[in-house]
Every structure is written in C-alpha cells, then in structure tokens.
Task: inverse folding
C-alpha cells in the first residue's frame, strides 16, 4: 500500500517526507483555498520548489468537532476507511496516484494529495454520463456484501439521508428558506396523506426485509471525480462513504448531476446492464425492484426538497425532471 499513515500533520509535512515527493526541495509555498459547500474542512494548496522543478499538492484538514456537516452526520472520519487494507485493495484503480499520506487524531484528520485538478469536471455530456455510470457499476461490483457490513450504514436516515432536517437546517441560516419553500411545494404535489406517510419514514432499512449492499461513495458526481479518459475515471472525497444499496449512489448522481434533458430511464438501464456484466449474473426482478425503491426513497429524502425549491416548473424539461422523481416516489409510497 503506497499511502502512508503519519503520526501528526507535522510529520505529514516534514521536509524529509516532502523531499521524497520532490527531490532537491528548496522552498515551500502554502496557500489557503476557499471552498464552497457544506463541509467545514480546510483545504491548502502546497507548492514545492526545487532548483529545476515545482510540484503542487493539496492538504485537507478536517476538525470533526467544528465541521457542521461532520457533526450532523456523526462523522468520525469515514473518509479514511478507504485506506483500510480490505477496502483499498478493491479501490486502488479508482484512487491511483491521488493520495500520498494521511494522519488521524482524536477529533481531526488530514490527507495529503497530488494536485490532479487538471482532470476535474463540473458536468457531463450525455455520452459521458454513460462512462460515469459504467465506472460506478465497476466500482460497486468490486465488493461482496460480506466485505462491507462492518462499515457505516448510510440508510440510517437521521445521520445521512435526512441530514437537512428542520432542526438541523436551523443551525445554518442559508438553508432555512430553501428547505421551507421546497417542503411546501412537495406537500402540495403529494397531497397531505402521501406527504405525511413520506415524512414519517425515519428508518428506510426497516421497511425492506432484504436488499444487497455494497461499498458506496455517498456523493458520486463530476465534482468528486477525475476524468482521465472514458475508461479511467477516478474518485475523490470519500467523506460520505459507507455501506448501502448501489442505487443510492446511482440516483444521487442522476438527481444532482445529469442534465434534465437526458433520459434517466436509459441511463438507469445502462448502469444495471453494466453492473450485471461486472458481477457476472443477472439480478432478479424482485431484487432490482427493491433496489430501485430503496434508492428512490433515500435520494428523495436527501435532495428532493432542495431540487423542488430550485427548479423552474415553467420550464418544460425542469418540469419533466420533477415529474420523474415525484411519480417514482408516489409509486413507492403507495406500495408501502
């Protein structure tokens, strides 16, 4: 395993260690990078200089006691699970050349990474969506169920799917109005009975007797990938990783990262076809139907209110996108 565990951040940034990364090191420049999003992790760009060369790295430091997102998700450093031998050996092709070293303390951790920002993408073309879903299917197929049962269950709704609850968004002013607006729209569309049924779901796991689980990224989207080429898409930012149904990653990607004009049914079927090719057998209809129901419920709990609040329902394609998610959610709720 090439990613080194260090005893402190000081060791992670020691001259001896950095000279292994850039021989002939003469100077270091440290720059604080402002980031958007919910996480309170601090990101620093580190530029190493030798006489003939320079090399850029990134250092991520997360104080789990100060990070709002970490607190509401009860995160104790899940991002570092990928460095455990049983996970790393299966993930190596997806994280190759990204990570250099890490440190974990009582309430914080740090990760040192190569600068691969040249490969970052912010969105996908329709063809690229197929590449991303093929990559996701390949990733999910690496894990058997017994590989992942000791890892964080992402369908503990209060800790993951439902982290933007009324109580928790009250801690972050900018989310309040957005949440309230989306909830009003959702209640109006679903009707009071279905909305109450949906709102009362607290533990999705308890609804279904069984569904297969795999290791999940938890936030699979272009922002968290490195697009080397169509056959080599690497994955970064594993802070939301854990154990759960493959469709949670799939629907999160479809809901947050796919152009509203793209046909989600075609994309979903393409993922399933590739997953079955990688695992070497066909999923039964009952198993796949259950995975779809779990994925719909979980992804809607995570993002539907926000999607509604930020969609223009006067736009034909945005309306059809909302219609897709609402109709699928209704179908699941009626069957429960």
Result:
């Amino acid at each position: 395993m090439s990613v080194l565990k260090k005893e402190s951040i000081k060791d992670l940034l020691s001259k001896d260690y950095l000279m292994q990364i850039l021989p002939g090191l003469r100077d270091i420049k440290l720059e604080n990078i402002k980031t958007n999003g919910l996480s309170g992790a601090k990101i620093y760009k580190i530029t190493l200089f030798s006489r003939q060369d320079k090399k850029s790295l990134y250092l991520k430091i997360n104080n789990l006691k100060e990070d709002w997102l970490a607190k509401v998700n009860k995160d104790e450093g899940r991002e570092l699970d990928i460095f455990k031998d049983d996970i790393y050996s299966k993930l190596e092709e997806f994280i190759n050349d990204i990570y250099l070293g890490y440190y974990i303390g009582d309430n914080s951790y740090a990760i040192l990474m190569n600068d691969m920002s040249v490969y970052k993408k912010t969105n996908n073309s329709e063809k690229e969506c197929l590449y991303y879903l093929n990559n996701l299917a390949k990733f999910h197929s690496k894990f058997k169920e017994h590989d992942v049962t000791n890892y964080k269950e992402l369908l503990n709704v209060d800790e993951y799917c439902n982290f933007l609850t009324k109580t928790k968004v009250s801690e972050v002013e900018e989310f309040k109005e957005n949440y309230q607006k989306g909830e009003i729209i959702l209640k109006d569309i679903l009707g009071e009975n279905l909305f109450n049924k949906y709102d009362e779901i607290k533990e999705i796991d308890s609804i279904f007797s069984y569904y297969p689980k795999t290791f999940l990224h938890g936030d699979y989207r272009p922002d968290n990938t490195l697009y080397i080429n169509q056959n080599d898409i690497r994955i970064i930012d594993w802070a939301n990783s854990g154990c759960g149904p493959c469709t949670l990653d799939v629907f999160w990607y479809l809901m947050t990262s796919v152009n509203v004009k793209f046909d989600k049914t075609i994309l979903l079927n393409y993922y399933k076809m590739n997953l079955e090719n990688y695992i070497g057998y066909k999923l039964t209809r009952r198993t796949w139907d259950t995975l779809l129901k779990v994925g719909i419920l979980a992804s809607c709990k995570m993002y539907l209110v926000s999607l509604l609040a930020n969609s223009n329902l006067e736009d034909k394609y945005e309306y059809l996108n909302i219609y897709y998610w609402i109709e699928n959610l209704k179908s699941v709720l009626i069957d429960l």
Observations:
- Residues 4-115 form a domain with the Phosphorylase Kinase; domain 1 fold (CATH 3.30.200).
- The beta strands are 4-6, 27-33, 42-49, 54-63, 99-104, 108-114, 214-216, 225-229, 232-235, 242-244.
